[in-house]
Amino acid sequence: MTDAEDRTRVDKWLWAARFFKTRALAAEAIAGGKVQVNGERVKRAKPLQVGDEVRIRLGPYEHRVVVRELSSQRGPATRAMELYEERPESRQAREALALQMKTLHAAFLPGRGRPTKKDRREISRFKGREK
């Protein structure tokens, strides 16, 4: 393996590992500080190596993965999952957050909207401004 083959740009790897649909989205996330390599904020051209720990924030979820293989070509999802190994605590935290968000959504019941004319009359009667 040559030096060029054992290093891949962060944005290319994130795209190849299917964390982002396009390299432009990966570059935008890196520039926005949503991606860290070995605990440090990086630029998109930073070369990754096997064994690097990458933290990726996608919406409310955070992925902590260890780079197992390098690839600058996007392939099927099964191949993309071979490029990294997710930390067990990262997976548990994501699953707990997903469950929390799911239960929160089920508990939230939106209001009925604007009061109808009948509701406004009842409110007026209650406040003592009966018409």
Quick recap of the structure?
The chain has about 130 residues and is α+β, with helices and mostly antiparallel strands. It has helices at about 10-15, 25-30, 75-80, 90-105, 115-125, and strands spanning about 10, 35, 40, 45-50, 55-60, 60-65, 85.
Describe the structure.
The chain is elongated and about 80 Å long. It is α+β, with helices and mostly antiparallel strands and 131 residues long. The strands form 2 sheets. The chain has a 5-stranded antiparallel β-sheet. The chain has a domain at 8-97: RNA-binding S4 domain (Structural Genomics Hypothetical 15.5 Kd Protein In mrcA-pckA Intergenic Region, Chain A). The longest helix has 20 residues, at 88-107. It has helices spanning 10-16, 23-31, 77-80, 88-107, 117-127, and strands at residues 8-9, 35-37, 40-41, 47-48, 53-58, 61-67, 84-86. Strand 2 and strand 3 (40-41) form a beta hairpin. The chain is built from 5 helices and 7 strands, in the order βααβββββαβαα. The model has no long low-confidence stretch (mean pLDDT 87). Helix 1 (10-16) crosses helix 2.
